[in-house]
Known about the structure:
By secondary structure, the chain is α/β, with parallel strands linked by helices. It has helices at about 1-20, 40-50, 55-65, 100-105, 165-170, 175-190; strands spanning about 70, 85, 90-100, 125-130, 145-150, 150-155, 195-200. The two termini are about 35 Å apart.
Amino acid sequence: MSEFFDDLKTGLNEAVAIERGELKGRKTVYEIQPVKTYNNNQIHAIRNSVGMTHEELCEATAKKYVQTFALWEVKGKWENPDVITWNSSGRSTVYEIKMSRSDFLADFKKKCRQAERKKAGCKFYYVCYGDFIKKEEVPENWGLIHYINGKFKEIKCSPNNWGNWDKIDQKRDLEGEIIMLVNYILCNKYFNQQRYCFNKRYCPNSSM
Length: 208
């Protein structure tokens, strides 16, 4: 493209010279090539080769692990989970996306990670873009997933406490999760920010 503009500049200078009678005219022909198209697999390969953005990995995680309904990059009361999913019983899982080691270490300093605070989610996972997080570095009640070469690999499973509802709900920020759902409705209705997806088993007519 820069070569085209260089030629255009040269052509303008030549036009001025021709107008002054200092130069004879010449003709340059440009051939416009058709735009190359890519299929989904090729697009996926290109994205992996150049890397993903945080938002792209959030979306990929939500669509991979959606149970019944999922949101990504949503605002709550005390915390703003990168991804949160709910199953058909209303139980939620939070996924924190980490693109760098410094981002992972900074996560422990968040107020919502303090033990005395209620937290969104019944289960918790870190999703690491690469393998710079080791399973022994992850808190006891968190799981770990590595995303490498376009594939998710579970390194550590989040503890299965689904049966202990009373204990979970005492520590769970249900009000914060309701605020997330309200923000989803507002963003989708007024700002057309479609950061959500459904499990097609429960919503077969959904395109998301």
